[in-house]
Amino acid sequence: MPVVTLEPSGKTVRTDAGAPLIDAFRLAGEPLETPCGGQGTCGRCAVRLIAGDAPEPPGSPPADLPPEMRRACLARVGETDLTVFHPEAAGRAEDRDEESGDPAFTPDLSPAALALSPLAERLDLAVSPPRPEDGLSDADRLQRALLPVCGEAEVVFSLPVLRALPDALRRRDGRIEAAVVREGRLLHVVDLAAGAGAGRIGAAVDLGTTTVSVQLLDLADGRVLATRSGYNDQIACGQDVISRINYAAAPGRLAELQARAAASINRLLRRMRQDLGLAAADVVCAVLSGNTVMLHLLLGIPPEYLRLAPYTPALLSIPPLAAAELGLHLHPGARVHCSPAVGSYVGGDITAGLLCTEMTDGAAEISLYIDIGTNGEIVLGNGDFLMACACSAGPAFEGGGIDCGMRAADGAIAAVRADGATGRASYTVIGAGRPRGICGSGMIDLMAELFRHGWLEPSGRLSRARPSPVIVAEGRRARYLLAGADEGATGRPLAVSEADLGNLLRAKAAVYSACTLLLDQAGIGFDDLARVYVAGGFGRHLHLENAVTIGLLPDLPPERFRYLGNASLKGSSLLLLSRAHRERQKALARRMTYVNLSHEPAYMDHYTAALFLPHTDAARFPSVAKR
Predict the structure, then answer these.
(1) Which 3 state secondary structure label does DSSP give 28?
(2) What is the pLDDT of residue 112?
(3) Which of 242, 309, 313, 584 has a C-alpha 20 to 30 A away from that of 85?
(4) Could you give the strand order of the β-sheet that contains 3-7, starting from the edge strand earlier in sequence?
(5) Would you say 378 and 388 are in contact if contact means Cβ atoms under 8 Å apart?
(6) Cα separation of 16 and 54, whole Å?
């Protein structure tokens, strides 16, 4: 077996001749980023040959690489020993691994201030003592004590609970505290009087394509104890859902994606538990929301058929699961409820997020819900009807696919102003330190400002018509210097290329054209909307006027917009605390009509028309034309 040496780390592994070169990195614990899902189209995994050879198979996609470079996702290990060099093997891990706290969110159980009815209930029970003549086991006696609570429900004991049961019953003469979760006709006993926080803590999880967010709540009073967000570790395997579906097709990679999703959640849970002094066993239940592909990957279900006609998911409504089955570090018997999906690309993150709106509460006025992230999910409707669709926006709104992009965390440029005379930028950095990169809201500001002052053409091309010290032309390509090497925290200049601007232009076109298609199918226009809800983690930094200027959002009066932030996480918290909201979510998922854009020829016409700033039809954006 050939020996593969990886530089600059110097690690060596043995692998079969003919094996994918990228597998050698994986075996060595140095996974490479493959935003294209291992299709050989992005070039991010390119390595330099130092010794030996690693040929790419005939028919590989063309690449603009020097002859000594190979794409590790396509190249195959040769018959002899091989040494390769990859200067950024960790793939900007400092961004991917950073977690930062989001603003605290206190769930509102409206309408009508619904009573707290958490997913896991904590019960104080008095269990009768054992008697030799009754022939009852400890479990039998506990079931009898639960009868007033469970009624005709079947009581289910996990093995950890059964192991703890004998001592727990005798420690306080039959007085025990139990954490239970109702699931239809089943009542799961999750915990028996373990510790000070046992049975009181629940987790709300938003499993996003780019960002994962987790919130811990006190189930007794609904208080938010901690909130953290971080990158989804699956980014190294593909920046969007299609790339990850492609990546999962190779043997062993679905298991890798499942483990990466669980690890992303566990990392955040561990940080919060450490801050709060909690043990994993203190968290007895969780509500998890995410798009349909993310949930398939977390469950280890092959996602291949989601991208093949007729685009059929394995399931839309996921039965409650044990945390251990998903590899989540909660109480051993903790129950995890997943938000139901609506279609192949409209998932539980949307059915959870809609709980934060008034669209499902019998309202007659028609509203639009836009969740802006790696996938753009759109819902149109009111109390009588709901139509939903999804478009592939790409990761630009969350800082992905941008050379100096990052998510909205400390060090990210979140707001930008450009000087009309020179084009130079002034900016605001989250956390007020030196910039490490630019997030989605900053990119939207930058594009709007450059366009407004004539430094960016409607096609998204940087203008060469007048000189600017921050627009650097290199042949047919140009880049915009956002911050010099001496200004940033990384010691490298922060620059935005025309390719980066093109990624954002395509992302905004995808979202706006999806909105247009839904409105067309309903026979209404943007002016007929009473309200536009904007969801997404970067929403709290979004500048409305700039979002309209680039044609991302419709040109409507500002008072019609409502910003929800991470509605998926907020909705998951509501579901964790309220049975009424859990029933409400099931009902709205059943009545929502899913529109598959791949079956709608008009979508591409709308998309092409939106590939300009702000749009090819200037009449759609009168305020932009006026400015």
Answers:
(1) coil
(2) 47
(3) 242
(4) 11-14, 3-7, 82-85, 46-51, 69-71
(5) yes
(6) 12
